[in-house]
Amino acid sequence: xxxxxxxxxxxxxxxxxxxxxQLLVNYHYQQNLVGGxxxxxxxxxxxxxxxxxxxxxxxxxxTIGFEFNTPWYSNLLLxxxxxxxxxxxxxxxxxxxKKRKVPLNFTPVPTPQALFTYFMERKKDSGLTHDGAFIYxxxxxxxxxxxxxxxxxxxxxxxxxxxxxxxxxxTFKPYSPDGDVNFGSRTNVSVxxxxxxxxxxxxxxxxxxxxxxxxxxNSLGLGPAVHFFKDxxxxxxxxxxxxxxxxxxVNEGLKIQGVYKKYALQQDDNTGDRYYSKLWEEPVYFKxxxxxxxxxxNQLVFPASTASLPLKEExxxxxxxxxxELALA
Length: 329
Hints:
alpha+beta, 329 residues, globular, ten-stranded mixed sheet
């Protein structure tokens, strides 16, 4: 659970992994759904037709499994430490973070709202989404941005990603029949880093990795938010609800649902191979406080999270498509 720590006159909020993933999901919602896809639909740059988002004014349908590279979409990689030591030095020792002569500049982020604001403001930096990673030190409550080394491939000891990691319907799988991988360096870094590493002195260091992927996950065109941790991974994504669905929705007018999945890291008793096994998959929605809630039970997805980031609600009226008026309630 989050913990308030008084230091002088400033109160620092210790953010656990649930806080950080909740924050990342909120950012994905605010930046890529409300401020991105909804705005682009409202402006007529995107069209929703036959259950699929179309780009370029409605001329080109999104392609599942391909990068959704548009100026308004923000992908993101966040690496966060788990045991209160200097995360930057150890990332460099592990060859994950590039070594630079110029020291990294840290920004204090004493609360979840401060970290959220930092992400939103860094979006204005044109280089943010392509080659960098955010580095969050949870002990000193600081964040910076560094450049990661490209890890072209995973070692054979790394676990196998689930078939629905790159596409909801598994049509675009993480691995090709010839053995090639269909995901890039950021996923490689996340899978590698989340199992921790041992420094030159023999000390073990834990690490969590958080991703907003730009790979088109389904017909809505957006990628998922993913949290890799030592014992598994969890995922949140948006999708268009099936016909007749009664919600609740994260967007009532467009009938967009949120979905939460969780996977456990397993090991085959015979081969020793490690893989991710799905534990559950449930529709979710947001409380006014910004917390994720299971649609069926109204229980919090992250009960240990103390992060409260009220969602920004905007009323929009979308163009009429196929004689269907898509207007926010």
